[in-house]
Design goal:
Helix 2 packs parallel to helix 5, helix 8 crosses helix 9 and helix 16 packs across helix 17. The protein contains 17 helices and twelve strands. With 449 residues, it is of the alpha/beta class. The strands form two sheets. A seven-stranded mixed sheet has the order 9-8-7-6-10-11-12, sandwiched between helices. It has a five-stranded mixed sheet with strand order 1-2-4-3-5, sandwiched between helices. The chain folds into three domains: 52 residues, no CATH class; 138 residues, 3-Layer(aba) Sandwich (Rossmann fold), CATH 3.40.50; 166 residues, NAD(P)-binding Rossmann-like Domain (Rossmann fold), CATH 3.40.50.720. The longest helix is centred in the last third of the chain and has 25 residues. 49% of the residues are buried. It is globular and about 55 Å long. 47% of the residues lie in helices and 16% in strands. Strand 7 and strand 8 form a beta hairpin. Homohexamer. Keywords: NAD, Nucleotide-binding, Oxidoreductase. This is Glutamate dehydrogenase. Belongs to the Glu/Leu/Phe/Val dehydrogenases family.
Length: 449
């Protein structure tokens, strides 16, 4: 058993039951094998062991009142994983699935994702098992105020800068910041990103993760002799990441033929009407099946339908999983390969199991890993922090160009690292090594901290 395998077993023992965190650590440690063989000082200094241990784990009670006056209680989390490169940076997720293992996996991935951007941001993540679905605006506001009443003491624009994630959009960020400002008695808008434009938010933030995904995918497939023009794309999800990945893909001449939500997926062979999806999701707050009211020629397949059809059974050239972690296992990966796909771009965090990732790479699929391909959101959050610091606002075009440049550089650094360590075109290995080396260098220079 290798030293890194021993370390993985130790991580599992120290963090029992946190299967998502175990999976994330396993993927990274496996990728670091060629680095450690070539440069053993990374292991001998205990640096990799420290890298797998959060600097701080914060867990707290969040009491609030619903509209009927009933006292409710949820659990809140903030994992401050690594500050080697800058203040902790990472989103807040409000979803019933949130527990310590999910937050730690997201925070661990965030270290490498943030490192790859080349910007001065460390890695962190947070959230709550609170479910915003079905809650009134007042209930969400009361919850956010209670959540921030505890969180405020652990964050700051040079300490820890949260943003949004699943279940946390500009509405929730507004409520959170309002409570922070009330407690602090100061206008410190750099403490949160994903804000409304009128009080310091950045243009392109809503589009950033989806756009960034396509900037990475475009660079990757063009570098390997392909073009997006005319390509068939299947996208899971229909939130911001999926929506704006679709928008950018269409601008590049590709055709999106399927999208989904947690209840099922739609298939429109003529090409998904993105305007309709935006109308349903952003204004009506409806479900993806409502697409058929406007486009009856499309088909809808529910998750609990008798045929159990998967969105990944739809033939495509490029698969973009933009929904949740581990949505692509071996059976889905085999469908994607059998249907002749050339590439897969991970818009969600860890949407593909480790087994499926290995299979897809072995089959020659160009795989854009999440920590590299979906870094556009946090990159633009860091650009928002810069604008807040300077008290200026960049135009949409300025931010978009900076985002494009960052994503192209992430692709290049992932490509070069993969090639240097003998894994040419394996961008999973390349992204992990490139991201890790930057953090590791900072840790080495700062001593045992």
């Amino acid at each position: 058993m290798s030293k890194l395998q021993n370390l993985l077993e130790d991580v599992k023992k120290k963090n029992p039951g946190e299967v998502e965190f175990h999976q994330a650590v396993e993927e990274v440690l496996t990728s670091l094998e060629p680095l450690v063989e070539k440069e053993p000082q990374y292991f001998k200094t205990g640096l990799i062991e420290r890298f797998c241990e959060p600097e701080r784990q914060i867990m707290f009670r969040v009491p609030w009142f619903d509209d009927e006056g009933n006292a409710r209680t949820n659990r809140g989390f903030r994992i401050q994983f690594s500050s080697a490169l800058g203040p902790y940076k990472g989103g807040l997720r409000f979803h019933p699935s949130v527990y310590l293992g999910v937050v730690k996996f997201l925070g661990f991935e965030q270290i490498l994702k943030n490192s790859l951007t080349g910007l001065a941001i460390g890695g962190g993540k947070g959230g709550s098992d609170f479910d915003p679905k079905g809650k009134s605006d007042n209930e969400i506001m009361r919850f956010c105020q209670s959540f921030m009443t505890e969180l405020y003491r652990h964050i700051g624009d040079s300490v820890d800068v949260p943003a949004g994630d699943i279940g946390v959009g500009s509405r929730e960020i507004g409520y959170l910041y309002g409570q922070y400002k009330r407690i602090r008695g100061a206008f410190e808008n750099g403490v949160l990103t994903g804000k409304g434009l009128v009080y310091g938010g950045s243009l392109v933030r809503k589009e950033a993760t989806g756009y960034g995904l396509m900037y990475f995918v475009k660079e990757m497939i063009e570098d390997n002799g392909h073009s997006l023009e005319g390509k068939r794309i299947v996208v899971s999800g229909s939130g911001n990441v999926a929506t704006y990945a679709c928008e950018k893909a269409e601008q590049y001449g590709a055709k999106v033929v399927a999208m989904s939500d947690s209840n099922g997926f739609i298939h429109d062979e003529g090409g998904i009407s993105l305007d309709t999806v935006k109308q349903i999701k952003e204004f009506e707050r409806g479900r993806i099946k409502d697409y058929l009211k406007y486009h009856p020629q499309a088909s809808y397949h529910a998750v609990d339908s008798s045929d159990k059809k998967s969105i990944w059974s739809i033939p495509c050239d490029i698969a973009l999983p933009c929904a949740v972690q581990n949505e692509i296992g071996m059976s889905e990966a085999k469908m994607i390969v059998e249907n002749g796909a050339i590439a897969l771009g991970e818009g969600a965090n860890m949407p593909t199991t480790n087994e499926a990732v290995k299979f897809l790479v072995e089959k020659g699929i160009l795989l854009a890993p999440a920590k590299a391909a979906n870094a556009g959101g946090v990159a633009t959050s860091a650009l928002e922090m810069s604008q807040n610091d300077m008290r200026i606002n960049w135009t949409f075009e300025e931010v978009d160009q900076k985002l494009n440049d960052i994503m192209v550089n992430i692709y290049k650094s992932s490509k070069e690292a993969a090639k240097e360590y003998g894994f040419d075109k394996n961008y999973v290995v390349g992204a992990n090594i490139a991201g890790f080396k930057r953090v590791a260098q900072a840790m080495l220079e700062q001593g045992v901290v």
